[in-house]
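Re: folding output
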Amino acid sequence: MKHRIIEGRLDYTSRKPDRLDQPRGYETFMFTRHSDGKLTLRAHCEIEEPEPTVMRDIIYSIDEHGQPMDLHVRLTVGDAFMGSGWLRFDGKNIECESFGPSIGRLSQQVEAELPMDGFGTHPIVSDGYMLGNHKWSHEGERHKFNCYLPSPDHRGATPPMIAQVKIDGIYLGKEQVTVKAGTFAARHFQFVDPGDSGMAGEHPPYDLWITDDEDCIFLKGGVGGYMMTWYELVELRR
């Protein structure tokens, strides 16, 4: 094969005192790295806690210059169909074709604010890839990521529609990290949103450790505040 495949699984657990370390969902993913430099991410996510449950399937493609190409998303909330949609970026405009019981059939097109850092897709591995793939110059550097999402909800639990979000990412340095999937050279990052990003309210600080290589694989991380969640890579195949 001319392409390379990376597959893995993340476990979602709780950090809430009454549910400490108990399962709250999982995520499986596959990166396909093509020989022409393009990348496709496939991810299946299930959030079991808190209610209502969320199930998400995405296929997200990025070109050889790191720019988003297209995104397919299908969403189930409370085990009921919430919506499905397709977003495409042509270098200038973003278009969305979507359907959901609460919105009916929707067509959108907006002129993108450039430069653009990517589509926000909500799987944890996608968050990690966006941070890891950015060109950082020094520890402590802060970058405002300009992204377009199919949902501004913190769990992505709304029908697919175009939403712009600008969220700060901080590079905190290199570390060695051990998770259930192994021991890795890693970089530590943090997303920070005081409530002015365009997301649906303030998002608690979100720490992420990503492999220190071109694959930018999420290793571990968590969100504090009212969420109190933890994510860890438990399986990896390259």
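--- second protein (sequence, then structure) ---
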Amino acid sequence: MKHQDSQSSGRDRILDAAEIAFADDGFSGAGMKAIAQKAGVAQGLLHYHFTNKEGLYAAVIERRSGIINAERLERLAAVDLTAPDAVARILRALMEPPLGPKGGGRAYARILAGLTVGDARDAELVRLHYDDTAARFIDALHTALPGASRAAISWGYNLAIGTLVAAVSNSGRPERLGGADPDKTQQEDVLNTLTTYVEGGIRALIAPPPD
């Protein structure tokens, strides 16, 4: 049991170090030797657990997306899709977990930003680790917005993710430009702003064209 615990602890340290390295340096810039040094393990242990850098990168995405998506789906399951505020509650369920302590903060937001505009490898990782959960949220929005086209809701969902990534990774710029103190910004205020903005955008997308 102690040996298994030690292996698990070493694996987690590697993933923690790799997440920071991939966020700071990107996939191409992050080095296995530097990641091993930061994790305090032998470089051979990285190859033992993950085979190569591609495997390590995929494991970083799998771990963090699994944590975020589990919380998202738990929150989504508690939403009454027939309630008047269903759309806002669905969006809160989507956006709150990445903003919380398990979301990986700005480091993972930088990785996610790269995933959304990345190459074929990144597109496949998004498909594997995010598309099923995305479909659940699009289904929920489609139920809460009867009569809206799924295509419009899908666009709204994807634009919401872009907005969320920008919000998680921001360095206080919105506050500075608005004359506010970034250090006094509360997570709940950010969440409320995001929810209001994204809901308004989705409702504008599905509104019938003017006569």
